User: Fold 4-hydroxy-4-methyl-2-oxoglutarate aldolase from Brassica carinata.
Amino acid sequence: MAAFATAEACDSNAELISNGDLRALHPTFKIYGQRRCFSGPIVTLKVFEDNVLVRNQLETKGEGAVLVIDGGGSTRCALVGGNLGQLAQNNGWAGILVNGCVRDVDEINDCDVGVRALGSNPLKSSKKGHGEKNVPVYIGGTLIRDGEWLYADSDGILISKTELSV
Assistant:
Protein backbone atom coordinates (compact mmCIF):
# COMPACT_ATOMS: atom_id res chain seq x y z
CA MET A 1 0.00 0.00 0.00
CA ALA A 2 1.24 3.47 -0.83
CA ALA A 3 1.85 5.70 2.16
CA PHE A 4 -1.40 7.34 3.21
CA ALA A 5 -1.38 10.41 5.43
CA THR A 6 -4.49 10.88 7.56
CA ALA A 7 -3.62 14.55 8.15
CA GLU A 8 -3.51 15.19 4.39
CA ALA A 9 -6.78 13.29 3.95
CA CYS A 10 -8.40 15.58 6.50
CA ASP A 11 -6.96 18.72 4.88
CA SER A 12 -8.12 17.75 1.39
CA ASN A 13 -11.58 16.43 2.36
CA ALA A 14 -13.10 19.23 4.43
CA GLU A 15 -16.53 18.72 2.87
CA LEU A 16 -16.55 15.01 3.76
CA ILE A 17 -15.61 15.92 7.34
CA SER A 18 -18.31 18.58 7.61
CA ASN A 19 -21.05 16.26 6.31
CA GLY A 20 -19.91 13.31 8.50
CA ASP A 21 -18.76 11.04 5.69
CA LEU A 22 -15.17 11.20 7.05
CA ARG A 23 -14.65 10.93 10.80
CA ALA A 24 -11.61 10.83 13.09
CA LEU A 25 -11.64 8.49 16.07
CA HIS A 26 -10.72 9.88 19.48
CA PRO A 27 -6.95 9.57 20.01
CA THR A 28 -7.06 6.77 22.57
CA PHE A 29 -5.54 3.88 20.62
CA LYS A 30 -2.00 2.55 20.94
CA ILE A 31 -0.04 1.35 17.92
CA TYR A 32 1.05 -2.28 17.54
CA GLY A 33 2.22 -4.48 14.68
CA GLN A 34 4.69 -3.77 11.90
CA ARG A 35 2.31 -1.78 9.71
CA ARG A 36 2.27 1.74 11.05
CA CYS A 37 0.07 2.80 8.13
CA PHE A 38 -2.80 0.64 6.87
CA SER A 39 -6.23 0.89 5.34
CA GLY A 40 -9.03 -1.25 3.99
CA PRO A 41 -12.73 -1.99 3.96
CA ILE A 42 -14.17 -2.65 7.40
CA VAL A 43 -15.57 -5.89 8.79
CA THR A 44 -17.19 -5.37 12.20
CA LEU A 45 -17.55 -7.58 15.26
CA LYS A 46 -19.23 -6.79 18.57
CA VAL A 47 -18.04 -8.98 21.44
CA PHE A 48 -17.43 -8.64 25.17
CA GLU A 49 -14.47 -10.37 26.83
CA ASP A 50 -14.89 -13.30 24.42
CA ASN A 51 -12.72 -13.77 21.32
CA VAL A 52 -14.19 -16.88 19.63
CA LEU A 53 -15.78 -14.77 16.87
CA VAL A 54 -12.50 -12.86 16.48
CA ARG A 55 -10.61 -16.08 15.78
CA ASN A 56 -13.37 -17.32 13.46
CA GLN A 57 -13.22 -14.10 11.43
CA LEU A 58 -9.41 -14.00 11.24
CA GLU A 59 -9.42 -17.60 9.99
CA THR A 60 -11.13 -16.32 6.81
CA LYS A 61 -9.34 -14.59 3.94
CA GLY A 62 -8.97 -10.92 4.81
CA GLU A 63 -8.21 -9.73 1.28
CA GLY A 64 -6.84 -6.43 2.62
CA ALA A 65 -9.76 -5.71 4.97
CA VAL A 66 -9.58 -4.27 8.48
CA LEU A 67 -11.29 -6.12 11.33
CA VAL A 68 -12.95 -3.64 13.70
CA ILE A 69 -13.71 -5.27 17.05
CA ASP A 70 -15.97 -3.51 19.52
CA GLY A 71 -14.99 -5.13 22.78
CA GLY A 72 -17.05 -2.65 24.77
CA GLY A 73 -13.89 -0.83 25.81
CA SER A 74 -13.13 -3.54 28.37
CA THR A 75 -9.54 -3.65 29.56
CA ARG A 76 -10.05 -6.65 31.87
CA CYS A 77 -8.72 -9.17 29.32
CA ALA A 78 -7.21 -9.34 25.81
CA LEU A 79 -9.23 -10.05 22.67
CA VAL A 80 -6.23 -10.42 20.33
CA GLY A 81 -2.89 -12.09 21.03
CA GLY A 82 0.16 -13.17 19.10
CA ASN A 83 -1.48 -16.23 17.54
CA LEU A 84 -4.35 -14.14 16.18
CA GLY A 85 -1.91 -11.51 14.94
CA GLN A 86 -0.08 -14.22 13.01
CA LEU A 87 -3.39 -15.57 11.70
CA ALA A 88 -4.35 -12.08 10.48
CA GLN A 89 -1.00 -11.73 8.72
CA ASN A 90 -1.21 -15.16 7.09
CA ASN A 91 -4.77 -14.62 5.87
CA GLY A 92 -4.20 -11.21 4.32
CA TRP A 93 -5.85 -8.84 6.78
CA ALA A 94 -4.50 -5.27 6.53
CA GLY A 95 -5.22 -4.49 10.16
CA ILE A 96 -7.22 -4.89 13.34
CA LEU A 97 -8.79 -2.17 15.48
CA VAL A 98 -9.65 -3.37 19.00
CA ASN A 99 -11.86 -1.37 21.32
CA GLY A 100 -10.28 -3.40 24.09
CA CYS A 101 -6.91 -4.99 24.81
CA VAL A 102 -4.27 -7.14 23.14
CA ARG A 103 -1.62 -9.39 24.68
CA ASP A 104 1.61 -11.01 23.48
CA VAL A 105 2.67 -7.53 22.39
CA ASP A 106 6.14 -8.59 21.24
CA GLU A 107 4.61 -11.29 19.03
CA ILE A 108 2.04 -8.87 17.58
CA ASN A 109 4.82 -6.38 16.90
CA ASP A 110 6.58 -9.06 14.81
CA CYS A 111 3.50 -9.49 12.58
CA ASP A 112 3.12 -7.72 9.25
CA VAL A 113 -0.27 -6.31 10.16
CA GLY A 114 -1.45 -3.04 11.66
CA VAL A 115 -3.06 -3.23 15.10
CA ARG A 116 -4.61 -0.49 17.21
CA ALA A 117 -5.93 -1.20 20.70
CA LEU A 118 -6.65 0.59 23.97
CA GLY A 119 -3.75 -1.21 25.67
CA SER A 120 -2.44 -4.60 26.67
CA ASN A 121 -3.46 -7.10 29.33
CA PRO A 122 -1.92 -10.57 29.81
CA LEU A 123 -5.26 -12.18 30.75
CA LYS A 124 -6.99 -14.16 28.00
CA SER A 125 -10.66 -13.79 27.17
CA SER A 126 -13.45 -16.28 27.63
CA LYS A 127 -14.30 -18.76 24.85
CA LYS A 128 -18.12 -18.88 24.75
CA GLY A 129 -18.71 -17.68 21.20
CA HIS A 130 -21.04 -14.80 22.11
CA GLY A 131 -21.22 -11.72 19.95
CA GLU A 132 -22.42 -10.25 16.66
CA LYS A 133 -20.87 -9.92 13.21
CA ASN A 134 -21.36 -7.23 10.54
CA VAL A 135 -23.26 -4.86 12.85
CA PRO A 136 -22.79 -1.11 13.41
CA VAL A 137 -20.44 -0.42 16.35
CA TYR A 138 -19.70 2.76 18.30
CA ILE A 139 -15.97 3.20 18.92
CA GLY A 140 -13.79 6.21 19.62
CA GLY A 141 -16.65 8.68 19.45
CA THR A 142 -18.03 7.54 16.10
CA LEU A 143 -20.46 5.05 14.62
CA ILE A 144 -18.66 2.56 12.36
CA ARG A 145 -20.50 0.43 9.82
CA ASP A 146 -19.50 -2.77 8.11
CA GLY A 147 -18.23 -1.93 4.59
CA GLU A 148 -16.95 1.56 5.41
CA TRP A 149 -13.19 2.23 5.09
CA LEU A 150 -10.60 2.63 7.83
CA TYR A 151 -7.36 4.58 7.36
CA ALA A 152 -4.70 4.53 10.09
CA ASP A 153 -1.24 6.01 10.46
CA SER A 154 0.86 7.48 13.25
CA ASP A 155 -1.39 10.57 13.39
CA GLY A 156 -4.64 8.74 13.99
CA ILE A 157 -7.53 6.72 12.62
CA LEU A 158 -10.11 7.86 10.07
CA ILE A 159 -13.39 6.22 9.09
CA SER A 160 -14.81 7.01 5.66
CA LYS A 161 -18.13 6.02 4.12
CA THR A 162 -16.29 5.32 0.87
CA GLU A 163 -12.77 4.55 -0.31
CA LEU A 164 -10.65 7.71 -0.48
CA SER A 165 -8.17 8.54 -3.24
CA VAL A 166 -4.65 7.96 -1.99
